[in-house]
Amino acid sequence: MRETRGHWYLLTGLLIGLALGVLYAWTLAPLEFVDTPPSSLRADFKDEYRYLIAASYRATGNLDRARARLALLGDPDPVVALGEQAQRMLAASAPAGAIRLVADLAEALLNPALVASGQVGEPTAEPPQSAPAEAEIQTAPPADTPLPTDATSPFEPILASTETPSPSPTITRTATPDPRTRTATPTNTPRNSPTPIPTATIRPSLTPTATPGLPFQLVNQVSFCDSARPGLLQIVLENAAGNPASGIELTVTWLGGEETFYTGLKPELGFGYADFVMTPGIEYALSLSGGATRITGLRTSPCSADTGEYPGSIRLEFRQP
Question: What is the CATH number of the domain that holds 299?
């Protein structure tokens, strides 16, 4: 008699072989990646890699090394990739200092001339501490030693009074807390001098310098229609040198809401640029420079096109005096 077994034994063997293969690949001999390039990293790991590069650049100021490290990620445009990462960090409520690191590196890559001039991307370092000024002591000759009076003597007598010359006192120059004032005070008074020696105060002239951190001032405000990007509040900031001001905190408030963002997070539009999408029918107020500059009454205006009506946009340009 002939026995019919069917084909179920083939399926059972295939399942057992697949299970043993998965067990071997995941447990006994798992796959290990060795010396893989950074371009093969996952997207979130690439963001962490860029942040570490930006932190290293802030510490060392080596722009060439940062550029070479970013090239290992294989991004088509490292500047755009840094700007997009800064936007994602801002949306995730990352610390402002971390966002500033990424934005500064993007600005340094886009404007290397500003880095060479020391305006952008320089590592932060504490000013060198000067050693305390040592006392400069000028001691007069002993009282029993006559001072030379001939014309060839290299010394000149010091007048202690307006009438009678007396031995020169010991003068000590000490540093005072105020660096603008240097006072020489006599520490030894001659015994037979009836007139005390006055204190001489030297006041050097001060050189006027520009005051940093002055509030930004509005220099231009214009409303326009743009169907591609409707209802947009555009802000452009320039510092006193006429360069784009990146990393400046901006705050937009409205009835029942508030949002904070920064300039320089869209490097393709400029490092002094930032924007905010307005809702029609709502009035907004913009604050910057720590609230010293405030623009109110910002709202969209209606614009028309072939496809219908859409909200207009506003462009605000600020400059630091």
Answer: 2.60.40
